[in-house]
# Entry
Amino acid sequence: MSRKSLRRRRGRVAYLYLAPALGFYLLFVIVPYAETIWYSLYNWDGIGPKVWVGLANYRTVFTDPELVSALEHSLGFIVFFSVVPILVGLVLAALVAGDRRRNWTTFRAMIFLPQIVPLVASGVAWTYIYGQNGLLNQVLRLIGLGGITRAWLGDFTWAYAAVGIVGTWVGTGLCMVLFVSGIQKIDYQLYEAVRLDGGGRLREFTTITVPQLQGELRVAATVTVISALAAFDVVYIMTGGGPGTTTIVPGLAIYLYAFSYNKVGLAGALGIVLSLFVYAIVLLINFVARGRRDA
Amino acid sequence: MKSRKGAVGLGAAALTIVGLSGPAFGGTSPKASPSTQTLTLATDTPDANILNVAKAFEKANPSIKVKVEASGFNAFVAQEPLELASNNPPDVVLINGIANMAKDGLLLSLNGYAKKYGWYKSYSATKLAETEVAPNGTTLGGNNLVALPLSFFEVGIYYNKALFKKAGITAVPVTLSQFEADLAKAKVAGVLPMQFGNAQGHASFTIQEIAQSISGAPAANSWIFGKPGQTFNTAANREGVDLLLKWEQEGFFPSATQVNGTNLAGAVTDFTKGQGVFFMDGNWDATQIGQSMGNNVGFFVFPGQHVTAAGGGGPFAIAAKSKHQALAARFLNFFNSPQAAKAIYAAGEMPNNVSGISAPAGSLAGDLLHVFQAVSTANGFTDAYANATSSMDNTFIAQTQELIAGKTTPSALIAAVQADWHQTHG
# Structure
C-alpha cells in the first residue's frame, strides 16, 4: 500500500471518528443557528403564522434605544468580567506562584470557589449582600460609613457596577488558576537570570512572567470576554435589567423578547447580532495576541 | 393574572425540581383500575391552592386522577404555548396571561360548557371578562370564554394597627384625601407612612389602585383588555402617576433607591417587622403577613369614590388538542363547588363562591373576606395594568423605577406605557 492511499484511508477513518461529534454539532449548533437566521427575517410569535419583514428586525436591534443600550452594557461588562479579573489574576498568580515557601492552597481554593458555585446561587446571595439591610451596608455602618448605605441594586448610578463586580468576583479565580499553572511551566532559570542581573520581583513580573503567559492570557481573555458579552444569569437574578434599563444586557433582552413578548423574530435578530459581536471580539483578541507573539 | 409573579419569585426555581416529580402531588396511583381516567394539569408552582382542589376533585370523583405538573414560573410561561401546540398537550393549563394562545388556536372555547354548567350565572361578569377574548383572539372582555378562574386576587392596603394608633389615626380611610392625610400624620409622628418595594414594578399597582378608585373598574378594564381606542392618558391615570411621585417626594415611602432595590418579598418582610403603617399588596401575601403580625394587622379596600381591587384571577384553560375535554370541563366546573371553595380558602386564597365561608370579624382573614365581598358586590374587580400586554409588566418596571428615581416625568411615563399598549392593541 502506498503512503498516499494509507494517508487517505486514515483521513477517512478520522472522519468516521469525528462523525458523532460532527453530527451533534450540526444538529444542535449549526442547524439551530441557521434556523435562527431564518426566523430573524420574520415577525413571528413562535406558533402562529410568520410574516416576512426582511431586515426590519436588524434595524430595530440597532435603533431601539433599549436594545442599543443592552449592547453597550455588554461591552462595558468586558471591563468587569475580563480586564479587571485578568489584571488582578495576574498579580495574585505572580505573588502566589513566586512564593516558594508556602503553596497557598487554601487561598487559591478560596479565590477559585466562585467558579464552582452556580451563577444563579451566587446571584441570589449577592442580591442579599447588596440589599438595604444586607452585608455590605452592615459593614459600611460598622466602619462609620452609614451615610452612603443604600439598596445598591436599586440605585441608578451603582447597580451596573454592583452587578459587574460579581463578574469580577467570578472571573478572577479562573484567571488566577490559569496563570498559576502557566507560571509553573516557566523555566525557573529565566527568573534566576533576572535575579543575577539584579532585577527584583517587579522586574521578573514584567520581563518574564507576563510575556511567558501569552497563551494563558489569550485563553483567559477569550473565555472571560465571552462570559461578559453573553452575561444573562447574574443580571436576570439580580436586577432583571433594572433599575430602569440600566443593567439590561442582550442575553436578557433575547430571553424577554422570545419567551415573554412572543417576538421570536426580533429575539433571533438580536441573538445573531450578539453572536457576531462575540466572534468579532474573540477574533480580534486572537489576532492581537498572535501578532504580539510574532513580533 | 400575572400579578402574583412577584410573590412566586425565587421560590419557583427551587420548586421546579420538586414539581417535575409530578406524581408526588396526587398523581396516578399504580393500583388505578383500568377504568380510571387521568387528567393532566400543567401549572407554574405546585401551590396548595391547586393541589388541594385537585385532591378534593379526586375524592369527589374516585375514578378520575388529576396529575399536577408544575415546572416553575419562568419555565412554565416560556414553554406553555409549545406544550399546548404539541400532539400530547396537558389537558388543563394555568393561564398567566393569554398572550397569543387564543389567537393561535391553542385554547378550547368554553362557551358551550359555560352554558351547560351555568358559569355565566355563578360568576360575576367582571370575573369572567379577563378570560373572554374578542374575535381577534387578543382583545379581552369579548364573548369567547377560554379559561375559568380558580381563585381571585385582591390588592388593597394592609395596615399595622399599633403604628396606626401611634400615628394618631382613628379610623380606616374611605376617601383618597383622608388616606393622604393619614400618610401625612404618620410622617409627622415619625413612623414610615407606607412600606413599598418596586424592584419588580409593583408601583403599577399604586398607580392603578389610585386611578381606578377615581375612574371605576370598567374604565380600567377596558384599557387592560385592549378595547379599541383606549388610552392610558386619562385624568385618573395622571392622578395615579402624579401621586406616586408626590408620595415618594414627600417621604411617604422609603428612599427612592431602597424602593427600587427592594422586591416584594423584601417589602413584605420589612412591613411585618414594623416598618410602615400601610402597605399595598395582594391577598397572596396574607398568610405570611398574618402569621408574622397576628392581630396587629388589618386590611382595607383602597379608599376612593369607587370600590375596586386589582389583581385578577388565577384562570385555567383546556387545551384545544386535549383528549379529555369533557372531563377537563367537569374539573373546571368543580372550582365553584363548596368543597373546592373550602380547599381554596384554606390555602389562603379567595374562591368564587364564598357563601359557605366565614371568618372572625376584626381578624385579617375577616377583613380580607369583607373586602372581597364588597368588591364583588360593587363589580369592582379588575385585571392588573401590568397584564395589558405581554411586555407591559417590564415597561412598568422600568418606567416606574425611573419615575421614582427622578429620571423621567409623569408625562413621559404615560406616553411610554401607551406606546407599549399601541404595539399590541393598535
Summary: Confidence is low (pLDDT under 50) at residues 1-32 of chain B. Chain B touches chain A at residues 10, 13, 74, 77-78, 81-82, 85, 99-100, 103-104, 106, 198-200, 254-262, 266, 270, 390-391, 393-394, 397-399, 401-402, 405, 407 (CB under 8 Å).
